[in-house]
Amino acid sequence: MIRLALGIEYDGTEYCGWQKQKNSLSVQYCVERALKKVSSESITIFCAGRTDSGVHALGQVVHFETNVQREQSAWILGVNHYLPSSICVRWVKPVDKDFHARFSAISRRYCYIIYNSCIRSALLFQKTWHYKKYLDINKMINAAKYLLGENDFSAFRSEGCQSRSTYRRMYHLHVIRKGQYVIIDVKANSFMYHMVRKIVSCLVRVGCGEKPEIWILEVLKSCGKADAVSFIAPSSGLYFLEVKYPMHFSIPSSGVDELLPEY
C-alpha cells in the first residue's frame, strides 16, 4: 500500500463544492471516479480544505492510498483523461505514511477577486464578484490590519461550522487594486466555514464608505454575539490558492507566488 499526494486545480462554478453530496455533482466525486478508472480500485481521497459551491482552486492538495504502482506521469495523464475539463491534476508525489493533506498543513492561502466596475464583465461574471460602487482600498487596507495575528474569529464563521476552536492566526491580509480589480489575499493557519467570504464582505462595507475602518475591530471583538456579518460575499470570487506543509514532506508549490507574491 502506497500513499500519494495530488495537486488539483478546478473551476468550481458547476459543482456543489468539494465534498461529495447526494444528488449533486462534487469535485471530490469526479476525482475519485477518475482515480478508480485508472487504478481499478475504489479510492477515498482526503483534502486540505473543503471548498463551497462555486469556489475555485489553484492549489488544492489531496492524498489517498492505493495498491497500484504507476509512474507519476501515468497517474497525471491517466486521471486527467477521465476528469472533466474544469478539473485538472497538476502533480502527483509519493508521500510518507504520516502525511495527511489536512492535518499536516501549517497554513492555507486564499484570494478573493472583485471586479469593481459599473459595467459587468460577461467573461468574468462567474469568476469574480461584480461590485459596482467604487471601493477605497486604503480604507480596506487599514481595516484589514485589525484582523492580523491570533484572534477569536467567531464573528466570521457561519452557522453549521464544525470547528472546535474559533481561534485562528492570520499571517497576512493584503488588499490590492489592479485597474478595475480589487484582490484580497489572505493567509492563515486554517479557516472556518465562510470565514474568508465574511471577511471580504466586511472589508467591502468599509471600502464603499458604509462603515468606518474601526468597525472591523468591533465586529471581531463581538465574537459573534451580534449578527454584524449577515451578508456573505458570493462564492464566485473566491480561490483556494495554496497549502503549506513542513519542508520535510517536499510538497510542490502551487506556483501562486508568480501571480501574487507575498510582499
TrEMBL record:
It catalyses: uridine(38/39/40) in tRNA = pseudouridine(38/39/40) in tRNA. Pfam families: PseudoU_synth_1 (PF01416). Its EC number is 5.4.99.12. One of its GO terms (molecular function) is tRNA pseudouridine(38-40) synthase activity. The active site is at D52. The keyword tRNA processing applies. Keywords: Isomerase, tRNA processing. The keyword tRNA processing applies. Formation of pseudouridine at positions 38, 39 and 40 in the anticodon stem and loop of transfer RNAs. Homodimer. Belongs to the tRNA pseudouridine synthase TruA family. This is tRNA pseudouridine synthase A. It comes from Candidatus Blochmannia ocreatus.
